[in-house]
Amino acid sequence: MAESPVKDSQGLISFTIYSEGDKIKDSFGLISIWVRKEVNRIGKATLVFEAGNVAAGTMDESEDNAFAPGNVIRIETGYQSTEEVIFEGIVTSHNIVIPGGECATLEIECRDFAFPATLGRKNRLFEKSKDNQIISNILAKYSALSANVDSTAAKHNGIVQYYCSDWDFILSRADANGLVVITEGKNISVKKPDVKAAAALKVTYGTDLIEFNGRLQTASQRVHDKLHHHQ
DSSP character for 178? Predict the structure, then answer.
């Protein structure tokens, strides 16, 4: 089991951001780093920087090529300058925000390398193939990705991808076989969840749990039970 995030978390938080393998300029004034990673969703990172010089009427941060769309971004963070990679992907959005009466910001959105699979809708026919073969063949078209796909049992005489992005089609075929899709930088895995495996991480309320929103709703179950009882 992984150690608690609280361990060795004392001291100054440090970070380093790289663009195309080079550290970005120290002149970039970082406001926040936000990274999201979820099952069946492409990983995302958002960077927010101070931007612009009102007196000079310039926006040097935006004009810098470091965050040009398509650039490869790597984010490392840690404590006391001991840093680990928490995100690696490509710039997909470059936004300048100038709110009334407040300082301007440069907001950079990045996605995992699987992001191109979400672009465009395609039509294909796959014949005499298993779902894992179909998924692997689709992912092989994206040279930046390294794929790991669990084998599936059923072999289809023919299956159609109709006006659907590669990403959505992969999710549908994975779901049909009880698999989940996980992206991590250049790696993408399509695997069956191991629900009997040991916990990967334990967090404790009052110790290392920062925020939680849990909900248990039984309304639909009660309605079902009442209908079943009346029948």
Answer: T
